[in-house]
Amino acid sequence: MGSSAVSGLLVLLLVSVSYGLDNGLAGTPPMGWMAWERFRCNTDCIDDLQNCISEALFRDMADRLSEDGWRELGYEYLIIDDCWMLDQRDKEGRLQPDPSRFPGGIAKLARYVHDRGLKLGIYADMGSHTCMGFPGTPLHKIQIDAQTFASWGVDYLKFDGCYSNPVEQMLGYPMMSAALNDTGRPMVYSCSWPAYLGGLPPNVNYSLLGEICHLWRNYDDIEDSWDSVQDIIQWFSDNQDDLQPAAGPGRWNDPDMLIIGNFGLSVDQARSQMALWAVMASPLIMSNDLRNLDPNMRAILQNKVAISINQDPMGVQGRRLLQKKSGIDVYWRPLSNSCSALVFLSRRTDMPYLYHTYLSKLNYERLFGRPRSAPPCASSHHSRMTPQRETR
Ligand code: GLA
C-alpha cells in the first residue's frame, strides 16, 4: 500500500471515529429549544390551552425561534419531549401523536418548522413505556420507529431509557443508531443511556457512545433551581477526568437543558449557568417560554461571546482548574486560534466577593500545553460576559 493510501485510510478512520453516527452532524454542541423542563407532561388543552403539549405550542415556539433572532444565533432544533403520543400504536404498529393535541400530525409540524429554517426533534424511549407511561420502543419496534420518524421529516431523536434494563439498553441504543443511519435521513441522536447506568465507567463505555450517539445525558434531570444547577456542575466537575475526554466534535456530554428565563434563577445565577454551559461545551438547549421572556434573561441566552465559546470548532470541553476554599471555582476551556475561555464561579452565599488572581498563578496551560511558537489568541471571543463583580 502506498503512503498516500495509508494516509487516506488514516483520514477515514479519524473521520469515522470522531463523528458519531457517521453523518457529520453536531460538529459543535447542538442548540435549540426543548419542551420538557418548562412544560413537562401538561396534556390539559381544555383548561390550559396556552401551555399544554400540543402542535400549537411547538408552532408558537417555532415562530419565536425564527422571528426573535434565535435561529441566526444557532438555536435551530425545536425538540418535542415526552407526552406527544397517543397511548396506542396505529394498525400498522407505528407510534402516533395524540390527534386531539396534534391534529395536523408530526409531518405537517415538521414542514412548518422547516419552512422557518429550523429543525424538528422528537422523543422516544428505549423500553416498554416512556417515563410518563406512553408507548415505548422495545427492541422489536426500533426499526419501524426510526422509519416513522424519518418519514415524518424528523431531524433529531432524544432516546430515553425508562422501563428498560441494562441488557436491553446495550442492544437497543446501538440498534437505534444503525436504524437511524439506515433511513438515509441525517438525524442527531441523543442517548439517555449513561444516565441510567450511573454515568461513569466502567458501567458506561464512552468510546462506544462517541461512535453511536451525538450527545448523551450523563446525570440527573435538571430542575428549576440554582441548587439543581449547582448539583449538576459539581457532579460533572468532580468526574471530569472520565467525562471531559469523551467530548469532541460529534460527541457531547449533556448536562441537560438551560433553565434560564424560568422561575428558579436570579440574573447572576442565569449568567453562571450560561457561562458554565459555554465552557463545558454543553448542548445549549433552552426550556423556557420564549413567548414571554424577561429581557435580561433573553440577553444572557443571546450573548454572542458565550455562544461563540460554546460553539468553538475545536470542540474541547473545559475543565475545572481550581476549587478555592473561598468558594470560588475556576474553569478553563482551550479554544481554537490559541484562545482560552476562563470562568470564575462564586458559590458563596454571603455577598459579592472580590477575588484576585494572576493568569500565571492559574497555570492553566499545563493541562494541554501550548506550543511555544503558537500565535497569540486572535479571535473575537475576548470580551467579558459577566460584570466584574463575582456572580453567585
Ligand atoms: C426523563 C428525562 C427527562 C424527560 C422525561 C420525560 O426523566 O431524563 O429529560 O425527557 O423523562 O418523561
From TrEMBL:
Where is the secretion signal located?
1-20
The record's subcellular location field reads:
Lysosome
Instruction: Domain (Alpha galactosidase A C-terminal): give its ranges.
Output: 315-366
Q: Does the keyword Lipid metabolism apply?
A: yes
Q: What is its EC number?
A: 3.2.1.-
Q: Does the keyword Metal-binding apply?
A: no
Please list where the region (Disordered) is annotated. 373-392
Coiled coil region boundaries = none
The alphabetized UniProt keywords are:
Disulfide bond, Glycoprotein, Glycosidase, Hydrolase, Lipid metabolism, Lysosome, Signal
> Could you say which enzyme class this protein belongs to?
hydrolase
GO CC terms, sorted: lysosome; membrane
For this protein, the record's InterPro entries field holds: Aldolase_TIM, GH, Glyco_hydro_27, Glyco_hydro_27/36_CS, Glyco_hydro_b, Melibiase/NAGA_C
Which Pfam families would you find in this protein's record?
Melibiase_2 (PF16499), Melibiase_2_C (PF17450)
Top-level division of the source organism's lineage: Eukaryota
Q: Name one GO biological process term.
A: glycolipid catabolic process
Read off the PROSITE patterns from this record. Answer: ALPHA_GALACTOSIDASE
SUPFAM superfamilies under this entry? (Trans)glycosidases (SSF51445), Glycosyl hydrolase domain (SSF51011)
GO molecular function term, any single one: alpha-galactosidase activity
Q: Which coarse location class applies to the principal site listed for this UniProt protein?
A: other
Q: How does it assemble?
A: Homodimer.
PANTHER family, sorted: ALPHA-GALACTOSIDASE (PTHR11452:SF83), ALPHA-GALACTOSIDASE/ALPHA-N-ACETYLGALACTOSAMINIDASE (PTHR11452)
Return the similarity comment: Belongs to the glycosyl hydrolase 27 family.
The protein's name is Alpha-galactosidase
